[in-house]
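Incident log, support desk, overnight shift.

02:14 A customer reports that sequence design results differ from what the structure should imply. Their input is reproduced verbatim below. On-call engineer (initials T.W.) acknowledged and began investigating.
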């Protein structure tokens, strides 16, 4: 019964903003709405796009619309590079704030230990594949 109430409470937390601001959210969360919103920032539209892509790590921002709007505003090359830069900065900020602990906790572990693969020849093949793709460098082996 407690799980039901937890589910109901979380569902209400998600649905209440849509009930209150549904029309405005519907306007912004379309590609044309996002482009119009970015255009209102003038020369700062690219910076706003980067900030939104970085904030997507912690906030439910539809990054697909942000990336599409950047492509519409700046063209496929520059908009695509801005979208890649924003995605890269999102991951880099996550690693900075996480202090790299996700990588250090597995330092010295084999791929099979990290991925939970069974021992034996399958484990050796998984380790070989992991290392050939650069996984050993990422985890300090």
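02:41 Re-run completed on a clean worker. Output:
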């Amino acid at each position: 019964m407690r799980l039901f109430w937890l589910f109901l409470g979380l569902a209400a937390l998600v649905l209440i903003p849509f009930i209150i601001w549904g029309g405005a959210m519907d306007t912004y969360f379309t590609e044309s709405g996002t482009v119009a919103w970015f255009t209102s920032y003038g020369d700062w539209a690219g910076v706003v796009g980067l900030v939104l892509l970085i904030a997507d790590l912690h906030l439910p921002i539809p990054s697909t619309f942000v990336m599409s709007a950047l492509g519409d505003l700046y063209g496929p090359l520059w908009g695509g590079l801005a979208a890649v830069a924003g995605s890269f900065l999102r991951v880099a900020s996550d690693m900075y704030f996480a202090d790299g602990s996700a990588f250090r906790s597995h330092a010295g572990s084999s791929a099979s230990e990290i991925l939970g693969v069974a021992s034996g020849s399958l484990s050796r093949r998984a380790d070989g594949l992991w290392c050939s793709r650069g996984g050993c460098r990422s985890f300090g082996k």
